[in-house]
Amino acid sequence: MPHTPKVAVLFGFGINCDHETAAVFNLAGGASERIHVNSLVDGSVDLEEYHILAVPGGFSFGDHLGSGRLLGNRMRFNLREQLYNFVKAGKPIIGICNGFQVLVKTGLLPGREEPDFIQRASLTLNNTGRYEDRWVTLDFDQNSNCIWTKGITRMEVPVRHGEGKFVVPEMKILDEMDATGQLVCRYVDPSTKTGEGITDEPIPFPFCPNGSIRNIAGICDPTGLIFGLMPHPEGAYAGWLHPHFRRDGRPTPSPTSSPFSHIIEDDTTSAEPNRSARSREAERDAWQGEGMQIFKNAIEYARENL
Amino acid sequence: MSMNIHRIEVTPKHGEGMVDVRGDVIRRQLLADHNISIENISSVVGFIVKVDLDEATISKDVEVLFADPIIEVGNCNKNILENEEIFEHRPDAVICIGFKPGVTDNPGTAALDGLRTLHPDISVNSLISTTITYSLNGLPKDLDLDYLAKQLHNPLIQKAIVKDTRKRSVSIPQLDFPERPNYEYHQPAVVDLEVSDEELIRISEEGILALSLLEMQTIREHYRKPEVHEARKLLNLPEMAPTDVELECLAQTWSEHCKHKIFAAKIEHHDKETGEKSIIDSLFKTHIMKPTEDMQEEVNWLLSIFHDNSGVISWSDDLNLCIKVETHNSPSALDPYGGAMTGIVGVNRDILGTGLGARPIANTDVFCFGPPNWQGKLPENLFHPSRVLSGVHAGIRVGGNESGIPTVNGAIVFDDRFIGKPLVYAGTVGIMPRVLPDGRESHIKTPAEGDLVYMIGGRVGYDGIHGATFSSLELTEESPSSAVQIGDPITQKRMLDMVLEARDSGYITCITDNGAGGLSSSIGEMAEYTNGCEIDLGAVPLKQSGLSSWEILISESQERMTIAVHPDDQHAFEALADLHEVEHSIVARFTTTGLFHVKHGESTVALLPLNFLHDGVPQLELESEWEEPKLEQFIPPSVVDHSELLLQLLSRPNVASKETLVRQYDHEVICQTAIKPFVGKECDGPGDSAVLAPLYGDPHGFVVSCGLAPRYSDIDAGAMAAAAVDEAVRNAICSGVDPAKMAGCDNFCWPDPILSEKTPDGRFKLAQLVRANRELERACRGYRVPCISGKDSMKNDYGKGPDKISIPPTMLFTLLGDHPDVRKSTTSDFLGSGHHIYLFGETREELGANEIAFMLQEKGLTKGVGGEVPRLHDIGKNLKMYTALSAAIHSDLVASAHDCSDGGLAVSLAEMCIGGRQGASVNISKISETTLFARLYGESLARIVVAIKPENIEAFENSMSGNHFTKIGKSTNNNYLEIKSASKKILKLNIDQMVESWQSTFKGGDF
Known about the structure:
The structure holds two protein chains of two kinds.
Chain A: E1 6-11, H1 18-27, E2 31-36, H2 37-41, E3 52-55, H3 69-78, H4 80-88, E4 93-96, H5 98-106, E5 122-124, E6 132-140, E7 154-161, E8 165-167, H6 171-179, E9 185-188, E10 216-220, E11 226-229, H7 277-287, H8 292-305
Parallel strand pairs in A: 1-2, 1-3, 3-4, 4-11
Antiparallel strand pairs in A: 5-8, 6-7, 6-9, 9-10, 10-11
Helix pairs in contact in A: 3-5
Chain B: E1 4-12, H1 21-34, E2 40-51, H2 55-59, H3 62-66, E3 72-76, E4 93-99, H4 106-118, E5 127-137, H5 145-152, E6 158-164, H6 197-206, H7 213-222, H8 226-234, H9 244-253, H10 256-259, H11 261-264, E7 266-271, E8 277-281, H12 283-296, E9 302-304, E10 311-314, E11 319-327, H13 329-334, H14 336-352, E12 359-369, H15 385-403, E13 407-414, E14 423-433, E15 452-457, H16 467-470, H17 489-504, E16 508-513, H18 518-530, E17 533-536, H19 549-554, E18 560-565, H20 570-579, E19 584-590, E20 595-600, E21 603-609, H21 610-615, E22 621-626, H22 642-650, H23 659-662, E23 673-675, E24 678-679, E25 685-686, E26 690-692, E27 701-707, H24 717-735, E28 742-749, H25 762-783, E29 787-793, E30 797-798, E31 805-806, E32 810-819, E33 836-840, H26 851-858, H27 875-890, E34 896-899, H28 904-916, E35 919-923, H29 932-937, E36 944-948, H30 953-959, E37 965-972, E38 976-981, E39 984-990, H31 991-1000
Parallel strand pairs in B: 7-22, 12-13, 17-20, 28-29, 35-38
Antiparallel strand pairs in B: 1-2, 1-3, 2-5, 4-5, 4-6, 7-8, 9-10, 10-11, 11-14, 12-14, 15-18, 15-19, 16-18, 17-19, 20-21, 23-26, 24-25, 26-27, 27-32, 28-32, 30-31, 33-36, 33-37, 34-36, 35-37, 38-39
Helix pairs in contact in B: 12-25, 14-15, 15-17, 22-31, 24-25, 24-27
């Protein structure tokens, strides 16, 4: 039961969201380390030492030959045993954006109870043919057993990709995944009510930014421990990263407040010493971003189960 | 096993939810850009693999490596377009495009890496070349296939085969492996300089050396010195003449690109308007360096200025920021995609090579192009502006996105004259710890005698020879293709990851990038620290054998850094490079001999005293003469429909939204971008500047903004420069920058200002440069913005004689400033109704060279664009106002703030309405005693529009007392912008109409 779970954040070969992913796991209460893929391959770092594995976003190998494919192959051929053992030990794995593409091409997602490293789905070019950076709205399947998304209903997050359209060879695979709660989050029309946005029918661009089948944004494996998504929850770690932070009524920040100080009581240097702990806490929560919850969930899970 | 060539081809599957997006994008692009309608286009990616594997083995890899089994289908050594199971219909036409030999092929490199994952023991000589083939069905009548192929490839770097395949007898074409021609190593040649002046000029011109007669003579003089003979004799060098290695090395080091000779020149300046006659000893020292050095005495945050790859300021107690902006104009003219990409990855290396290494965290990009809808004549060898735009955009997009650095700020300006030479500015902000774990300050390089000098990253090839000297010449039809390169952002990313780890481990004593001039410049500059170096060209890894010594020394092949390491750290440094799969070679050692000593194996091929190499270039002596250009006056038409006029202004390329282009840049990777390029309710209103919070969990931030106004140079280049500085400053103020901590970066792009046969107006162009520098100094001193870095590109012309095109003199000013708390940034969008709208600053009758004047002139409604140009009047007053506004922003008194620039107040208000999807009702009668046109569309500087919530009015007005402002109206819940002057209705526009006009210009084509 680690109080501070250790998080391995992969990097190298064009992964480029490793710093922020590591930082956000730390803000969520973990102890993260950026680990070069080759350090796992040559054995200088042992994956078993870690409680959580993150494959961050980026452009591994420039997306040449298809996003995530070459890094997926390196992992499939060079890290197979380590990954197998990590999964079998019941440890959470997340793949974000390019990391999601890597996990799909490695065969860990949608995956089987018994990892077999066979690719069964893919992520391909957006219908627009364009790489785009924009914010989207996601709704989460409340019946999913995904440990990463517990308690999350809706979230606004950025997408930044050119190959995010989720496809499978046969539609019945999606029916099965839906039934088991593996279709964890979908792009939704932001004007729908929270919890009522999910639909199998295609919703228009830009609500669904890539033409993903059934508007799928993220999926998990049957155990709910391996989670991959195209949007960037770490990109919504702080309130000030939200494009509407000046419009959505967040409290005025007090001069010395830090939204990520873990112990509110220590905030005695505040310019407003009379402010109650409660109001300071409210302000802190308002300036923490919605995306934090995903990382906190995994840290919490690791604390309780590993 | 011997080497075999296999051809693997891959194409997308068709099925539910699966389409050939790549083919379809080309189909849409041909329709949008060229009005060519083709029913269907399929795409095939080809991998021509040269490897010691047999067909049976590599066939098994098709689905494991080359094709995605879910969405693609592939085959090996069959022509996939003839495979009827995959392609039901035979193509009507086929276009195959592949790289020319030696051109960087990133997908090919990646595929080879993937093949090595599967077969680690394949030959080191294995190679993969990629191709793209378009299969066309349903052709329009009279289609010119050759024209079509021309639109889809650049013959400078690619080759294409195009065939009409409707007749069964015509076989489906395929490209062959692009075999590199064999290069033959040539022994260093002796160049006899004891020849006539004409002959000296010929040597310089034919060798693309870009050296003047005086410079050639100066070099000759060096080889006449007896003491030089002594040293040369000992090393078996020609005693009285340079080797080609030495001459090339001097040409690179002395190039305008590297030495900034015009900015260092002694100028005799004559102002015919005022009668002033004066001597300026170096524009750079007088007007840029001196002001910054003076300011350095007053503030404690200017750490490293001018002498390193970028300027460094301290930002927090623990961290420094640095900034650099580069231009890549000539390469972008020849190959827009590769030129722009190498521009952005190149400037990132400048940051990586600052101090002991900094991390790039933000990119900026500013372009100047010909009009995208240009219908006029195009000079030989130049691309249509729309193609330059889409190519440059793609290069910046790929270069920036794949590097994992957010592109946060920029601008695009259009003018006919940029057809002759597009301007492509790429900038990078970097961050570095103030002190490294080993206690050294990170902005100071610490090389010592005996340190090992590594070249790491990419290899040296024939690509990239003569970039520095080429960019110091005007563009001609014969400009060399070897000056064009394609970047490899992933190789660079690996190197960057590795270098920053090496920095933190304390292995690096000195670092710089290999840009212009290649190893000759990078090692040559580093050698100044210890006063000497000895290079071995034989140790430099090559892309192909056979390169001659001078080629290895000056090649600008990309993705390389030069790093010095103490011998004790050799083993650890190399182990780290191996872990990251970064190639490394020791190519030199630092000495204290005072010599730049180059060997190739055992023999010496160049020996140049460092002081001659770096300080031997003679100072240019130039004359400038200022006479005000006589332009026809801009006289506004008396009867106009202002509603219609504003809609037209909003759709002008210079004003219109570039969101379609900008969204394709990742502007928030690394999760620091608080204020993004587009803001507001629908995230489509214009952002004035970017605000980033680089510490995770901490709202302390910084601001990046920019300003440029090339067309003001038509009247006065001085006004142009002042306007650029003011625009950058006021953009930053609108977001809440701390005006006490702002630093600038000046980037001059000028037409050749040296009087000559081909530049008869050289004196005038140089006078423009003088005036721009003087105004730059005045603005920087006035706003207390020290220039900490800058660059100049001085040969932005095309052609000769009457067909010559010279760009309008342009200075981009980029600003980097501190932001105490990003949560308190303001943006341009109206946040609600009933907010009071104020215009700050004075509106004058300054419509000369304004956007409205150019627009009406183009429409034939007025004749001239002349008149008073916007000028920077009372800087002290402006700074006081800016400082008070920033303070009001940080006291939470300001709801919205937006700068007033192209198109004036009317455009600013329209943009604030668009951003907030909120109406406004405004009366402009009290702004100033000027014409209606000046008040509506005039671009007088130092003006900002702000909106204040009613409850904050009193406090706000109190805090702004003593400054010039006019209350002009309120935001409303109505769906329109309404402008009156006194009781007269001027215009009324629905927001949806304004959105449509503002967004439609760049929405059409697929860029």
